[in-house]
Write a structure and sequence with these properties.
6 strands, about 425 residues, rod-shaped, about 10% strand, six-stranded mixed beta sheet
Amino acid sequence: MVMSWNSSPKGIHVDADVSTRVRRSALGAIAGISSILSLNVLSAVLERGTSVAVALGVVVLLAVLLGLQTLHCFRALRASPGTLSVVPLLIQSILTFAPLPVMRAEWAGISGLLVGAFLVALNGRYSWILAGAVGVVQASAAVPFPSEMHISFLSLLITFSTGLAVFGVMRLARLADRLHAARQEDAQIAVINERLRFARDLHDLVGYSLSTAATKSELAYRLIERSPAGARVELSQAIEMIRGTHAEMRKVAHDHHHLSLERELESAQSVLEAAGIESRFSFIGVDFTHHSSSVLAAVLREGISNVLKHSAASYCVVRLFHRNASVRLVIINDGPTLGVNGGVISNGVGLRSLSERVVALRGSLDVSRRGSEDRQEFMLEAVVPDIPDRFPRIVRQDRAAVSGRSRLIAWTTSDPALPHRDPDGVDPVPGA
C-alpha cells in the first residue's frame, strides 16, 4: 500500500513503501550478480566433462552460497554494521574455500562474493583485512606455477571487483534508506510546524479578541443603568470584535492571516480606554508596511492581552520607534501580578511563540520588571532589524525562549501624567 500526503504548503510527498522497494531492488541486484557468477562457474564445470552427480553437487553448493550471500545482505539492511552473527560468515567462508584447490581461477567470482559479505556484514578495519585475506588466498590458488602470474592477478582483480560491487550496491541501498528516513522526518517536522503555526496564530488572535470582548462586555454591563447608549456602543464594538475574530480565524485556517500594525495600535488604545487604563501611545515616523509589521502587531496584541489579564494596571505606555538600525516596540505597565514574572517569562505560551517569530527575524524579545517592592513596572520590548535579512535564521523551539530580567532597579516612573519623562527609561526620541 502506498501512502502519500502534502504535509506543508510546499507539498512534501512521502511514500511509505520507498524503503521496502529500495531493499528489494538491492537484494535483487545482489541475487542477479550472484546468479551470473554461479552460472559462469557451472558452465566451467560442465566444460570439464564432469559427471551429473558432481554437477548437481556444485549446483547445491552454489545455491547454498547464494542463500548465505542474500542472508548477509538482508540482515545488513535491517541492522547496523558490526551487529550481525559471524556463524553464517564462517559457514560461507568454509564452503567458499573448500572447492578452491579444484576450481582455481574459475572460482574468483564466488570468492568475490565472500569479500562482499565481509565488507557488508562487518564493520571497521577488520572487514577490509579479511577481504584482503580472501583475495590473497584466491590469487594464490588460481595458478600452480609462477609462470602464469597474470592469471593470478586477473583472478585477484575479479575477486575484488565483485566484492566492491556487492559493497557498493549495499552502501547505496543504505544511503537511499537514510535519505528516505530523513524525508519522512522532514515531512513530520513540517506537519508539526504547521500545527504550531495554527496554534500560535489562534492563540494570538482568539486570546486577545476574547479579552477585548470580555472587557467591553463588562463595561457595557456597568453602563446599562447609567448610560444605555454607551452600553449599546460597547456591546456593538464587542459584537464587531467577535465577528472580526470569526473572519480572522478563517484566514488563519487557510494561512492568509496577516495582522495590521496600525489597526492593532488603534484597537489597543480602544481596549485600554474601555478597561479604564490610562494609556500613552507614541509611534512617530514608523512605517506600518515594514517587513516585520505583522510580527510586531502580534507582539503588541499579546502584550496588551497580558496587561489586561496579568496586571492591575492603572496606566500603560506603548512606544514604537527607530533606533540603531532597528524598529523597537516597548510596552510598559504598572501593577504586574506576582505570576507575571515567573509565569510569563518561563512558561508563557504566547510570549514564547512570539519570541520564536521575532528571533526568526534576527531580533530579540525581552521582558523585565523594575521598580521598588511596593511599586513595580513590567516592560515588554521587541527589537527587529530595520533591514530585511535575506537569510532567515533557523530557530529551534527549545532555544527561542523569552529572555527575562527580574531584578529590582531604581524606580523611574513611566506615569503618563509626567510627559517630560521618557517612558522606557532610555534616551528621548525626537518628537515623542
